[in-house]
Amino acid sequence: MEYMLSHGASQEDAEAAVEYLTENKFIDNARYAEAFAADKFRFSRWGSKKIANALKMKHIPAQIINAALENAIDTEHEKQTVADEMAKKLRGIKGDEPKQKIWEKLMRFGVSRGYSIEICKEVITTLI
């Protein structure tokens, strides 16, 4: 709506266009949220918490976010992704560091990527 108004469209024309696009599912929060969640998980390797926060910042309702995350992210696939990402991170950490320091770095890495603490703990215990 704002884009059309800023480019010279009248208020009535802009409202009619948005209404048409919404009715024909060109503008659809649920479809957008599901595509966003799937892409961020698959390509950016974000966890479900980070994806949910990004969608909240885009003013997507919580029930749509939850449905999108359920459809886009499988828990077992998420665990495997965390394990792969942490294994890469572990290769970059110096081997002479204490085990506690390595654990802290991996935990911080996983949580900053948006994965839950429980999944991170489970993966780290298998890696170290």
Give structural notes.
It is a single chain. By secondary structure, this protein is mostly helical. The protein has two domains: 2-72, no CATH class; 75-127. The protein has eight helices and no strands. The protein has helices at 2-6, 11-23, 29-42, 48-57, 62-72, 75-92, 99-112, 117-127. Helix 3 crosses helix 5. The longest helix has 18 residues, at 75-92.
Please state the structural category: mainly alpha
Order of helices and strands: HHHHHHHH
The share of residues in extended strands comes to under 5%
Cα distance spanning the termini: 52 Å
Total number of helical segments? 8
pLDDT averaged over residues: 90
* Poorly predicted residue ranges: none
Task: Work out the count of structural domains.
Answer: 2
How many E-type strands?
0
Question: Which shape, going by the Cα principal axes?
Answer: elongated
How does the major sheet shape up?
none
**Percent in helix:** over 70%
Rg from alpha-carbon coordinates: 20 Å
Which key features would you list for this structure?
128 residues; mainly alpha; 2 domains; 8 helices; elongated
Describe what is shown at a glance.
The chain has about 130 residues and is mostly helical.
SSE blueprint and pairings:
Elements: H1 2-6, H2 11-23, H3 29-42, H4 48-57, H5 62-72, H6 75-92, H7 99-112, H8 117-127
